[in-house]
Design goal:
The complex is a heterodimer of chains A (about 190) and B (about 160). Chain A is mostly helical and about 190 residues long. Chain A contains eight helices and no strands. In chain A, about 75% of the residues lie in helices and about 0% in strands. In chain A, helix 2 runs parallel beside helix 8, helix 3 crosses helix 4 and helix 5 packs antiparallel against helix 7. Helix content of chain B is about 10%, strand content about 25%.
Amino acid sequence: MVLAIAVPIIAAAASPLLAWREPIYIAAGFSGVVSMCLLLLQPLLAGRWLPGLTPVASRQWHKWCGLALIAAIFVHVGGLWITSPPDVIDALLFVSPTPFSAWGVIAMWAAFAAALLGLARQRLGLRFRIWRLGHTGLATITIIGSVVHALLIEGTMEVMTKWALCGLVLLASARTLAKLRVWDVRRRV
Amino acid sequence: MAGVTFSRRSLVLASGAALATGAAGLLVPARAKSLAPTSSMRGGSNNYRPGAPIVDRIGGGGFWMTGTVRRAGDGAPLPGQRIQIWAHTTEGHERDPQSHGATLTDANGEFRLEMPQIVPAFGQPHGHLAYDSGEFETVFLRPIMGSSKDKTLAAHFVLQPA
């Protein structure tokens, strides 16, 4: 678990591209890598796969990791904006020449929506399984969008560790969705 | 015999291929085909700094940006046209003034400018080129390198009188 997260970050830290980047651009890039690592933790916490964590602690960590993910997305997009404003404006308006930009922007909005749904769960007063289907649906869009976004990019992440991390994120997500049977919205009897 | 001889099989194959090509609209009779002008690419003008100086080389060099400039319609090469070039390289970001330079096309409408190695930025190893001198319509190009290890990148302009 620690290895799965540490190895891609260490590999990215050894990227030759870093030599030709300013600190703010480097920070923006690493926020993206950290976001992908948090996307691995999120389904593991939601599915209560991590040993030694009670269900309540697992959910608390899921909440904090989610908020950290939102913060990391802000640093990622904000840092890229400072590095090259026109490229980020193009991406946000869906007119970027790079195909991975749209995937990233869709993933970002889905993550914001999933977080809001998470924070407003009690206020919304939705039946739990209906709420959960909405939250996991948005989370699934975030995960698929982020994985495609990352795989299409030629950046600081090293190829093998990037594919491995993305594979683990998809695997963890699929296992959790299956374990919780999120598509089953019938009332419990 | 020097002429082309067809066996029955090759004749059938050749005429079949010609028919298919014609049906696909690819076979046109020889006539003065009008050369369409190049459109600007998405994101081509990002981080453009108008009026980049004409230079012998951008920075320390080691990488070549090449291309051609022709006139729309008849495709005649356009000599003496100013092409502005910028990119994220080993010596600076796209926005840095030292990453920008310009060159002129030669008598054959060709240009080549030495510049530092382009490195991947914003997810792709790419360069930017502009024709923005007024005589023809402005065009911004953003070609992508096949591999970030390439030592050269080409971009071609077909310009339309303004």
